[in-house]
Design a protein that fits this description.
The complex is a heterodimer of chains A (166) and B (540). Chain A is of the alpha/beta class and 166 residues long. Chain A has one domain: Pyruvate-ferredoxin oxidoreductase, PFOR, domain III (Pyruvate-ferredoxin Oxidoreductase, domain 3, 3-Layer(aba) Sandwich), CATH 3.40.920. Chain A is 38% helix and 23% strand. Chain A has a 5-stranded mixed beta sheet with strand order 2-3-1-4-5. In chain A, strand 4 (71-76), helix 2 and strand 5 form a beta-alpha-beta unit. The longest helix of chain A is centred in the C-terminal third of the chain and has 22 residues, at 141-162. In chain B, strands 3-2-4-5-7-6-12 form a 7-stranded mixed beta sheet, with helices on both faces. A 5-stranded parallel beta sheet of chain B has the order 14-15-16-18-17, with helices on both faces. In chain B, strands 9-11-10-13 form a 4-stranded mixed beta sheet, sandwiched between helices. Chain B has 20 helices and 18 strands. In chain B, strand 10 (227-235), helix 10 and strand 11 (249-254) form a beta-alpha-beta unit. Chain B has 540 residues and is of the alpha/beta class. Chain B has 3 domains: 4-217, Rossmann fold; 223-317, Rossmann fold, CATH 3.40.50; 341-526, Rossmann fold, CATH 3.40.50. Classes of the chains: A alpha/beta (166), B alpha/beta (540). Chain A binds chain B through residues 1-2, 13-14, 23, 26-27, 30, 35-50, 52, 61-65, 67-69, 80-81, 84-85, 87, and chain B through 3, 5, 30-31, 108-109, 132, 160-161, 164-168, 237, 240-241, 243-244, 247-248, 309-311, 325, 328-336, 361, 364, 442, 444, 513. The structure holds thiamine diphosphate. Thiamine diphosphate (TPP) binds at residues 27-29, 52, 74, 76-77, 80, 359-362, 379, 406-409, 437, 439-443 of chain B.
Chain lengths: 166, 540
């Protein structure tokens, strides 16, 4: 009866592209033929406040929200949000921290969201092609190359941090 | 047809488009705002009204004209629209009228967490409640059908998690062709003088009895047979939380939350050992079921507050009333670093003003470092509240009272406050400060009648805030750019506070987040106007 689903929480501050990254991830799951739900609180997020977004995918997803303590992956874009968001992670869950990819290595200062998505992709069973197709659909043509670079950078950083066999 | 990943708002918009809704109108308000924006982007006729009451009235006119209408607002918007709503229940409609109001349990961005299911009961209108985006799509068609079959407005309740969560939607392959608009005269049914309204009320109750009967057998309220030990009656997104928390349980899931299928609920409750109602907000379903003599368990009072989620539903089912872990407190929103309101709040603080405030981005002036807002209740309330304070406070305090209101809020419901200021002026006068940043910033930069642009940013008639103030007879009306001249702004405010006459100051400077877009739309608008006037003279 219990179907396995993957729970991802993305956290950061307004303007960092948390919602964009979660849109791409959710669309990748859709492209991979999975059921997917995604929840976040909008509203005043534009005014620089904390933003979190939950993405859940698998054979059948019920609640759109990741229950506290049940996230398999937590991806954080702002150092200040790491401790705020940590309680969502399950015991043994993976934290993908903002400094995984050093800021000066990023091809564009605002591409951290996509770089960390790349890092997340290292852990997921989702086909990389679904993620890249979702990226292409979500990012304007002129910014695509930069973002694909960021994605690859994050994926490579994760391979170094967690080993190739994850 | 491909599965689409849509938010509940986008799914409702797509359904409205696919159902051939002739006109969508409303007033922005989180989490409902994106419905009309998406409906417009799809090619539907979407427009912002000055406020929710006008939106509902326009929608009612569309539906009197036998066409299909969509009206959207956040939960508190229905308070503003309640007057026409209650009597529209009596008159009914010829076409379809679907009124979406989006509740915000947990107050992600609202001033209260009222439960609008109460409105369905109070007005006597059927209410549907989707649980996710697919249901927002499917139930919207059901709402149109019910509205046309019983010639009655239908309330469509969404909540923050349904509006803003994305999930997969399989749309219909074909758009519906709606009935065409036409006027049918029905004085007895439409003109609610008492002699007509008395039979109209009886007709309404008869319709509701029929709809209640329909609800009993409707697929809108599916039964899901599971374990007999635990039965759960639920609605909206709470259904999914409950299905995850108790996957083995039996379920009665209500897609129609008013009128309720009481007999179906009665036999469901009788079949299970323990029957629990899982609902967000007030115990509306539990109270109604219990009043009908159905033995159901309601959640403990502590779960009335805030949203539900899977862990909270587990606690409800375990009858756990122990204190909950504190929710993480992230960084709260704040005024943008280069927001034009900074110098305004600096001056209000400097002059030690008592600020009757209002709702918008500018409400953030209540935070450090300014703490320059003393009341904030409902849209438009700043002016009335400021006047009341001026009437009764001792002179030393009264002369420091300022009403502070945003441009969109002023057009929404500030004008009648200004009329009150002219009609019942405090003896020492008053100061109304309109913060005009040229957009409805708080809800994501929507247009309003004061911007002179329509929902899709095309040029249209423009309402002048200072023009309204002057036309109403406000003795002192001044427009100033507080950002360009902070010192001048503070001097002006000090002067007006000392002047003892009713005055309006319009502090005008575009929102930093919207300024570039506004310049672009204005340029496009000018080009469009020039193009139109060229063809006009070519045709002469
Ligand atoms: C009755 C009602 N409708 C809608 C809202 C949602 N809402 C809150 S503030 C606001 C308007 C803000 O615009 P404006 O007054 O121009 O101030 P700004 O945010 O631009 O500073 C809206 C639409 C509400 N709180 N109450």
């Amino acid at each position: 009866m219990h179907e396995t689903i993957t729970n991802v929480v993305l956290a950061g501050l307004g303007g960092q592209g948390v919602v964009k990254a979660s849109d791409i991830l959710a669309d990748a799951a859709r492209r991979a033929g999975l059921d997917v739900k995604k929840a976040e609180i909008h509203g005043m997020s534009q005014r620089g406040g904390s933003v979190t977004s939950d993405v859940r995918f698998g054979s059948r997803v019920l609640s759109p929200m990741v229950p506290r303590g049940e996230a398999d992956y937590l991806l954080v874009l702002a150092p200040s949000e790491v401790d705020v968001a940590r309680p969502v992670l399950k015991a043994g869950g993976v934290l993908i921290p903002p400094d995984l990819v050093p800021e000066d290595a990023l091809p564009h200062p605002r591409s951290l969201n996509v770089a960390l998505l790349g890092a997340l992709s290292h852990h997921l069973a989702l086909p990389e092609a679904s993620l890249l197709a979702a990226l292409q659909a979500a990012i304007p043509e002129r910014l695509l190359e930069v973002n694909e670079k960021a994605f690859a950078l994050g994926r490579a950083a994760a391979a170094r941090a967690w080993g190739a066999g994850a | 047809m491909e599965r689409k990943l849509l938010s509940g708002d986008e799914a409702a918009a797509l359904a409205a488009f696919d159902a051939g809704v002739a006109l969508g109108t409303g007033y922005p308000g989180t989490p409902s705002t994106e419905i009309l924006e998406a409906f417009g982007a799809l090619g539907g006729r979407a427009q912002w009204a000055p406020n929710e009451k006008v939106a509902l009235e326009v929608g009612l006119g569309v539906a009197y004209g036998a066409a299909r209408a969509l009206v959207t607002m956040k939960h508190v918007g229905l308070n503003v629209a309640a007057d026409p709503l209650f009597t529209a229940a009596y008159t009914g409609v010829s076409g379809a009228l679907v009124v979406v109001s989006a509740d915000d349990p947990g107050m992600a961005s609202s001033q209260n967490e009222q439960d609008n299911r109460r409105y369905a009961v109070a007005a006597g209108l059927p209410m549907l409640e989707p649980a996710d985006a697919q249901e927002a799509y499917d139930l919207f068609f059901a709402a149109i059908e019910i509205s046309e079959r019983w010639r009655i407005p239908v309330l469509f309740r969404m909540t923050t998690r349904v509006c803003h969560s994305r999930s997969l939607v399989m749309p219909r392959t074909q758009r519906q062709v709606p009935p065409s608009a036409c006027f049918e005269r029905d004085v007895g049914g439409r003109v609610m003088i008492p002699t007509n309204a008395r039979p109209a009320h009886r007709r309404l109750r008869a319709k509701l009895a029929e709809i209640a009967h329909f609800a009993e057998g409707s697929a809108l309220n599916p039964l899901q047979d599971g374990d007999r030990k635990l039965g759960i009656i639920t609605a909206g997104v709470a259904y999914f939380h409950a299905a995850e928390a108790a996957p083995a349980a039996s379920f009665l899931k209500l897609g129609m939350v008013y009128p309720l299928p009481l007999e179906r609920a009665r036999s469901f409750a009788a079949r299970v050992e323990r029957c629990v109602v899982i609902e967000e907000g007030d115990p509306v379903l539990a109270d109604a079921l219990r009043a009908a003599g159905i033995a159901v368990e309601s959640k403990p009072e502590m779960y009335r507050f805030g949203e539900l989620d899977v862990p909270r539903v587990r606690r409800i089912l375990a009858r756990d009333e122990s204190p909950e872990p504190a929710a993480p407190t992230g960084k709260p929103p704040e005024l943008c670093p280069s927001c034009p309101y900074h110098p305004v709040y600096a001056a209000l603080k400097q002059l030690d003003c008592i600020v009757a405030g209002d709702i918008g981005c500018y409400s953030l002036g209540v935070l450090e470092p300014y703490r320059a807002m003393d009341t904030c209740v409902a849209m438009g309330a700043s002016i009335g509240v400021g006047l009341g304070l001026r009437h009764v406070l001792p002179a030393e305090q009264a002369r420091r009272v300022v009403s502070v209101i945003g441009d969109s809020t002023f057009v929404h419901s500030g004008v009648s406050g200004l009329i009150e200021m002219i009609y019942n002026p405090p003896v020492i006068g008053h100061v109304v400060l309109v913060l005009d940043n040229g957009t409805t910033a708080m809800t994501g930069h929507q247009e309003h009648p004061g911007t002179g642009r329509t929902l899709d940013h095309a040029p249209t008639g423009k309402v002048s805030i200072e023009g309204i103030a002057r036309a109403l007879g406000v003795p002192s009306v001044t427009v100033i750019d507080p950002f360009a001249d902070p010192g001048g702004f503070e001097r002006l405010l000090a002067e007006r506070l000392a002047a003892r006459v009713p005055s309006v100051i319009v502090a005008r400077h575009p929102c930093v987040l919207a300024a570039a877009a506004i310049r672009k739309w204005d340029k496009l608008g000018t080009e469009r106007r020039e193009a139109i006037s060229c063809t006009a003279c070519a045709e002469e």
